[in-house]
Amino acid sequence: MADHRLGFESFDEETDPVELDVAGELPEWLSGTLYRNGPGDFEVGDRDLTHWFDGFALLRRFRFDDGIEYSSRFLESDAYRAAREGELRYPEFGTNPDWSFLGRLRGLLGGARTDNASLTVRHRDGEHRAVTETAREVAFDPVDLSTLGTHDGSVEGTGTLAHDHYDFHQEEWVGLGIDYGRDSGYVLYHDPDDGPAETVAHVERDEPAYMHSFALTDHYAVLTEHPFTTSPRRLLDSRPFAESFRWYPERDTRFLVVDRREGEVVAEPTVPPFFTFHHVDAFERGDELFVDLVAFEDHSVVESLSLANLRSRAPEVPDGELRRYRIDLEAGEAEGRTLFEEDIEFPTTNYAEANLHPYRFCYGVGSEAGSFNDRLHKVDVEHGTNEEWREAELHPGEPLFVPRPDAEEEDDGVLISVALDVEEERSCVLVLDAAGFEEIARAYLPHALPFDFHGTFYADGEEPTPSMT
């Protein structure tokens, strides 16, 4: 019998649209398309890649309309085409090409940034795009998933965060870039629907921290600067990008509160050190900000996502806990408390309702020690309770919330997750009623997909706005 390791094997299939057999009953109102993104191939010639984040992007499309239609296709990025010829042309997160010093210098200055856009998808400037942690976004056809071309980005910075925010009231994207060059620091920008992207602030840092996401409120962007930092000098040596960062346990984690309009840093409170990949939500109450995120005790979770560890029978991955940090802008102080102490990751919400506002429900995946993503959580952050869904031999991915049209309750909708059934040795689409947190439909794919990262759902008849950060 297979186990979770099946989800970390290289995949070499592409699937034209096929109707899946659905067991159970899909809601009549569920009509739209779910796009998922994640690694599909972990090899370049005879060489294995090192980290889960390194695999070459495989787009997955699930069309909901009186059934489920599935298709998948590799993103034909420059990086992927070179890899098919046996060449690792660009540095990935945990694996480097065999470069000379001049090659590494060119990479640091932005001339050799990967377009292996395997983290998530977004809709911007009228296009569906795959994105990663560089400014190179890759457009794709929303129907057949064919690659349309690479965009090199319109804001300064050698790196960007794949997790940006959409402000539904202001009708603009807000994103964060990281500059690892001569003027290292964080680049906050906004990209309104009716105009070009513009830089809001450049916060200089000699040793910028690794950031995967950030928080946004009505008036502020909150950058969580944990003590996992690098420098241009360290990026020039032969180690991969992820290994150029160092953890400094004697330093605090700092919240950089940046005014979204003026670009000024208005507060820099610190708390004991922790690491985070994913923010959940943030909101304001008077002179106080509240920032919810998944916190780890240190950076070791980055190393734990190496393929060597994840392909072991009992992978050792640190637990993340859901925390809320209260930032007092007037006093310049911050303090945190635990909202949910069991392991949780890939957190999602009813994004259109929750983003920038107080919310009640957070959904995510969880694991027990020695396992990998073996359950789903629904955390009620107002009442401190949790509901759990799990099934033996099933490994669910990120649960995306899709609201029922005209819903009056925050959890009136469904959750969609793509899971690996190791007993069947196939992946399946799970649809759960979000309010009752019970499975209502399931559809099996013809094969087992590698574990993905993130995605979004675009409802029919609506503007394509994100369903998560």
Q: What's the architecture in CATH terms?
A: 7 Propeller
Average predicted local confidence, pLDDT: 94
Please state the structural category.
mainly beta
Instruction: List how many beta strands DSSP finds.
Output: 37
Binned strand content: 35-45%
The multimeric state of the shown protein is single chain
GO molecular function: metal ion binding; oxidoreductase activity
Cofactor: Fe(2+)
Keywords: Iron, Metal-binding, Oxidoreductase
Pfam family, one: RPE65
Structural write-up:
The protein is mostly beta strands. It has a single domain, classed as Methylamine Dehydrogenase, Chain H. 7% of the residues lie in helices and 43% in strands. The protein has six helices and 37 strands. Strands 2, 32, 33, 34, 35 and 36 form a six-stranded antiparallel sheet that branches. It is globular. The relative contact order is 0.15. The mean pLDDT is 94.
In short:
Keywords: Iron, Metal-binding, Oxidoreductase. By secondary structure, the protein is mainly beta. The strands form nine sheets. Strands 2, 32, 33, 34, 35 and 36 form a six-stranded antiparallel sheet that branches. A five-stranded antiparallel sheet has the order 1-7-6-3-37, with no helix packed on it.
